[in-house]
Model the fold of this input.
Amino acid sequence: MKVLGIESSCDETGAAVVLDAQKILSSVVASQVALHSRYGGVVPEIASRKHVEAILPVIEEALSRSGNRLQDIQTIAVTQGPGLVGSLLVGIAVAKSLAFVLQVPWVGVNHILSHIAAAFLSSPSLKFPLIALVVSGGHTSLFRVESHTRMILIGQTKDDAAGEAFDKVAKFMGLGYPGGEVIDRLAKEGNRRAILFPRSLLDPLSLDFSFSGLKTAVLQHVKSLGGKLSLDQIREIAASFQEAVVDILVTKVMRAAKQEAIREVVVVGGVACNSRLREKFTQDGSSSGITVFFPPPALCTDNAAMVAAAGFHHLMAGHHSNLLLNAYSRFGRSSG
Ligand code: KG4
Ligand code: ZN
Done:
């Protein structure tokens, strides 16, 4: 079945054509990052307007790269939430219109759960149950994944998302937006043991996360240095901060795997691109007999192929949406 996926939850407009949640025929992403970077973060009103401009050309490009015409599309999946409501509504309005015109079934999917679908798209041999860590600019959540449509939330951040902490620390050091990639790059040249930043692990059994104390500690450290930071100081702070985030994420995931008696883990979302996170998960996983999978970077950051894959599984499970569907801004359900 040829699925058209549409993604517009934040600052990336995506469209993809995917065959049976297995083969990506095309995946196109138009990023607005350059536009928002001058404001140091995503400006919702600008994001919505840009989605309106980009969405039809992006869909046309996805169709043409896949070698299909609109009439070849058999079903449509669109991100329903969580995300910026004004942005989500653009994708939803287009999905509703196309489904109505083509008279095909369609479904609204949860953005966080779509990130998990990206793992199955890149590693089809994964078996249930598994633990999924979704770690991005908007979310840091842990799931026990029992099937393609049943995912149970077992932990989440109580304050900032991990990617948000990367972005805020980078902004504070004048490194621009978004900050994850640049911190990752600078950290490669810095000593990760130079500064011992706090690792909030909450209580001993908790699977929840907290990054605001760490973020504040980094900001205070930067302030205490006063004036302009040298490149060496920036590298040291980047490496030490990144190490603290990685330690927290790895500790919680290993704790979840132990508590749930599960030996397979997937790590998805934009922060899953982080090179030190990949390295530490692979090392600690192999010493504790836990296999950790990461999708390739293009499937970790926001894209519509994951939306198409998630939508396919929901449609196979008999879920459909109708024209009354609305966007939602926050994660309020454990599965679609
Ligand atoms: O999944 P995503 O594209 O969008 C959301 O749903 O949030 O994730 C974007 C986030 C940003 O916070 C960005 O700084 C972070 O992912 N990110 C990284 C890296 N690449 C992107 N964080 C750490 N290291 C990276 N290499
Ligand atoms: Zn995302």
The chain is about 45% helix and 20% strand.
